[in-house]
Write a structure and sequence with these properties.
Elements lengths: L4 E5 L3 E6 L14 H11 L7 E2 L8 E7 L2 H4 L1 H7 L4 E9 L6 E11 L4 E4 L8 E13 L2 E8 L6 H7 L22 E9 L6 E5 L18
Parallel strand pairs: 4-10
Antiparallel strand pairs: 1-2, 2-4, 3-4, 5-9, 5-10, 6-7, 6-8, 8-9, 10-11
């Protein structure tokens, strides 16, 4: 495991980059970010309380926010639930959207036996609204790089909403199997929120790694 990539830390919170293959929540089923962060702070002789604020799928990487103090643990997940935390992603689609930018709204349901999320045709007690917006950043080799803003946080939401429109994420074998020789091309790019103690507006971002398929695209400085 590589050393932790910490973007920001203070007495109340820490933002870091979660690698592919690492769980975002406490678990005994594999390497997880809370345990890695606790180990890091313990080695520095600092308080090592860590609580997960939001999730990223195990196979997805990028910027994550964690609480370092019990008194803010309730505030941060509440801010996420109330959509006061802006979450933006970069995704590589196989194909090209019919419009360069749009908002997508669907009803999503979950199949717990198959561990799959799918777009439902009608409302039911098991469906929940999913909404996101996207804008095209670049295209190359039959792939499209889009910037995605999430307005809801449903399981596998980005993957399912694009796949249902014939635009599966490159590398996503669960929702549109292809033979891309890289992990799913989905990256948690930017988080914006108000500090739970000071109220200061904070924004933190990190570009995707310089590996395929990301190296096929040009990312503007103003992204």
């Amino acid at each position: 495991m590589e050393s932790l990539h910490i973007l920001y830390e203070d007495a109340y919170l820490v933002l870091c980059v979660k690698p592919v293959g690492v769980l975002s929540e406490d678990s005994e089923q594999g390497v997880c970010m809370p345990a890695l962060l606790r180990q890091h702070y313990r080695a520095q002789g600092e308080p090592n309380y860590i609580a997960t604020v939001h999730r990223l799928d195990k196979i997805v990487s990028g910027v994550m926010l964690f609480s370092r103090r019990r008194e803010v643990t309730g505030k941060l997940p509440a801010a996420v639930a109330e959509r006061r935390v802006t979450k933006e992603y970069l995704a590589v689609l196989r194909g090209a959207p019919s419009r360069p930018a749009a908002e997508l709204t669907d009803l999503l349901a979950r199949d717990p036996q198959r561990r799959l999320t799918y777009v439902a045709s009608a409302p039911s007690p098991d469906t929940r609204e999913a909404r996101l917006s996207y804008g095209t950043v670049d295209t190359a080799d039959g792939l499209t790089l889009v910037r995605v803003r999430l307005y809801t946080g449903r399981t596998h939401q980005i993957r399912v909403q694009f796949a249902s429109r014939g635009l599966p994420l490159s590398g996503d074998r669960k929702y549109g199997a292809d033979d891309a020789p890289w992990p799913i091309a989905l990256w948690s790019y930017r988080l914006s929120f108000d500090h739970p103690q000071t109220g200061a507006a904070l924004t933190f971002s990190c570009p995707p790694p310089q590996v395929a398929p990301w190296t096929r695209f040009t990312l503007p400085d103003t992204l």
